[in-house]
């Protein structure tokens, strides 16, 4: 069996195939030439523009170093009224939150037994006064008889001794009566100053023991801020220093002065403590509220103020970048105060220098930069 005969291409068909093959060969040749050219004659790298930064022309100033410390509002007038008798509680007329005036009764205790003791001692006093009067008349009579030699001296001495004994008994009874009358005043506990009832510790009908707390008072005047200060700043505190007292709950600030600095540090926190009084018109302030004390501890001459993003590193010695001849130059500086958003620099910079304030991780010593002025200065 013979193989099938392959049909022959016509002349136009052969021409088309030839042209296609030639074009394919030319394309392959051009691609290879381009690859060889890129390998042996690479295109030069494009120049990278310097990073754009903002600069700040610094100036020296006298900076006030202000610290903010936290504390709480306390009342200078605070009292816990306790029972001074062991007796039943008859009445507690005021409850928590009540306003009381100085001298108002806070608690009444049963004083019936004490009154009976007082009445008994008063009766004894009357009896002794009568006996002394009789003894004095008898002593006078014995003196008259003795002058006329009608009675022995011993009778006169006995009469005089009787008067002395009765006078001693009268003094003793008077002292006992005074104590009882004083205890009688303990049956009514009164407010020592104008205040508000903070807490009632007992109820009517209870048997109160001597020393048992009954009512706790806080004065709404003479309010003070008691503030904790780290011991490193304690040596700078002085009575009379100006302080601003801020109560965040009221969104208000009052001017004040440091009234006292407590000599001993807190045993737990090792912090110092100072107190400053609110003015009398500090409406809304109540004991127990949180308070922030703003106090200027120091003044720094020739300080430079920089935004926080311009200062790098940690600790007292940090670094900044200064613009010199179009390049960033690293400069070591000393930081005196680090506050939210800014630093006070005390050494390492001079007035008129341009400090780079852009936080760019590409910055390095000697790096060319394209500088623009900081808009916030």
From TrEMBL:
The keyword Coiled coil is annotated on this UniProt entry: yes
Signal peptide span: none
The keyword Coiled coil belongs to this UniProt entry's keyword annotation: yes
Alphabetized Gene3D superfamilies for the sequence: 2.40.30.170, 2.40.420.20, 2.40.50.100, Helix hairpin bin
GO CC annotation terms, alphabetical: efflux pump complex
Domain YknX-like C-terminal permuted SH3-like: 304-370
Keywords associated with the record: Coiled coil
A GO molecular-function descriptor: efflux transmembrane transporter activity
Pfam families: Beta-barrel_RND_2, YknX_C
InterPro entries, sorted: Beta-barrel_RND_2, RND_pump_MFP, YknX-like_C
Ranges where the CusB-like beta-barrel domain occurs: 226-296
SUPFAM superfamilies: HlyD-like secretion proteins (SSF111369)
PANTHER family given in the database record: HLYD FAMILY OF SECRETION PROTEINS, MULTIDRUG RESISTANCE PROTEIN MDTA
Matching NCBIfam families: RND_mfp (TIGR01730)
The protein, known as: Efflux transporter, RND family, MFP subunit
Species the sequence originates in: Thioalkalivibrio sulfidiphilus (strain HL-EbGR7)
């Amino acid at each position: 069996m013979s193989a099938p005969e392959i049909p022959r291409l016509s002349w136009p068909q052969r021409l088309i195939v030839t042209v296609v093959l030639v074009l394919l060969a030319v394309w392959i040749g051009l691609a290879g030439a381009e690859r060889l050219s890129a390998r042996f004659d690479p295109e030069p790298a494009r120049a990278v523009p310097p990073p754009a930064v903002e600069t700040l022309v610094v100036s020296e100033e006298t900076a006030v170093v202000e610290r903010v410390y936290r504390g709480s509002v306390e009342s200078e007038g605070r009292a816990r009224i306790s029972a001074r008798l062991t007796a039943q509680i008859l009445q507690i007329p005021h409850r928590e939150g009540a306003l009381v005036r100085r001298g108002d009764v806070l608690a009444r205790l049963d004083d019936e037994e004490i009154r009976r003791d007082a009445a008994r001692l008063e009766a004894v006093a009357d009896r002794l006064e009568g006996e002394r009067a009789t003894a004095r008349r008898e002593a006078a009579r014995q003196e008259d008889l003795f002058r006329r030699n009608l009675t022995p001296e011993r009778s006169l001495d006995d009469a005089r001794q009787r008067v002395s004994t009765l006078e001693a008994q009268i003094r003793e009874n008077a002292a006992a009566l005074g104590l009882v009358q004083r205890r009688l005043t303990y049956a009514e506990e009164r407010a020592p100053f104008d205040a508000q009832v903070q807490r009632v510790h007992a109820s009517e009908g209870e048997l109160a023991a001597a020393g048992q707390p009954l009512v706790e008072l806080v004065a709404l005047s003479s309010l003070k801020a008691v503030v904790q200060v780290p011991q490193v700043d304690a040596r700078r505190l002085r009575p009379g220093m100006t302080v601003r007292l801020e109560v965040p709950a009221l969104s208000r600030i009052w001017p004040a002065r440091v009234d006292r600095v407590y000599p001993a540090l807190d045993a737990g926190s090792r912090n110092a403590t100072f107190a400053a009084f609110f003015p009398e018109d500090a409406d809304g302030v109540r004991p127990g509220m949180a308070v922030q004390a703003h106090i200027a501890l120091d003044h720094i001459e020739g300080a430079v103020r920089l935004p926080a993003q311009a200062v790098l590193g940690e600790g007292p010695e940090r670094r900044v970048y200064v613009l010199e001849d179009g390049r960033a130059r690293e400069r070591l500086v000393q930081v005196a105060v680090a506050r939210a958003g800014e630093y006070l620099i005390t050494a390492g910079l001079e007035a008129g220098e341009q400090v780079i304030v852009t936080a760019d991780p590409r910055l390095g010593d000697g790096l060319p930069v394209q500088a623009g002025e900081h808009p916030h200065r």
